[in-house]
Amino acid sequence: MSVERSSRSRVEIVAADLATPERLDRYLASHQDLDLTRNRIQQLIEEGLVTVNGENVDKKTKVKTGDRVVVTIVELPPVDIQPENIPIEIVFEDKYLAVVNKAAGLVTHPGAGNRSGTLVNALVHHFRELAKGSGEDRPGIVHRLDKDTTGLLLVARTDIAYQRLQKALQARQVNRTYLALVCGHLKDEAGVIDLPIGRSLKNRKKMAVTNLNSRPAVTHYSVTERFRSYDLLDVTLETGRTHQIRVHLSHLGHPVFGDPEYGGREKWHRGIFAPERPLAKRLLGIMERQALHARRLEFNHPISGERQTFEAPLPVDFKTLLEVLESEAR
Asked: pTM of this prediction?
């Protein structure tokens, strides 16, 4: 192996003497020269900042002898998560885990541009112990919700609980059900969207359905109610990719209502029938975010094995949105 640093933020590694191909994130985590945790390496890979032989890849890519790996390191400020007395709704807690009903506008964990005011800052304040296996910048976080998605989120308080819950997620033994209002009408009453998701080549901050440097993504949906211009869906995840529900539904031409990133606000509504526009404007004023709510969470307790089921009521804005639709938009 030879290592060449071309600049402070760019590391080139030429793999040598590998007896067998090795998974990319494990390979890079084994190099002390990088001084990066495996979680951080996975973040860089997801952000498109790691290439193998000039190609964007995913963390499961196999590195072979002779491969040239380039890692572009975006320096982050030192992690110093301060406890903050941010009100959060704790649905359940014991000494191993907690279930939180996340509010809209709350970022799950610190990241670029959000070093404070996150759910993690609130969790550090409310709980003495949180699992550390999820990374130093996201203690306790088992899975994430987007900033403006509301609903149930699972938190691990011990490392053993975190490890077992992660295995359960990977084995698809954690059931997550969302309620989503989407623009337009889906053709079928129920269906499965099985399309790979990866970083958008046009905008690296967004995700897209793509066969390039992507990962499998499977979303199940069923229509629970139809309104004049919108459908209300129950959505369950078989996989948990970044922005998965929003990307899949947008790809079908039915973005989540109110979603500014994936076409659910002005972009979709510009094309609707003129008499529908005043109501659409009123609805967009009620819901200033995507109409997506993690309403149900089911999993086996990582220690006792008992099945746990939790449900979260709709937040006020989503409830108001549906009330208006039910009274005026049929």
From this structure: 0.78
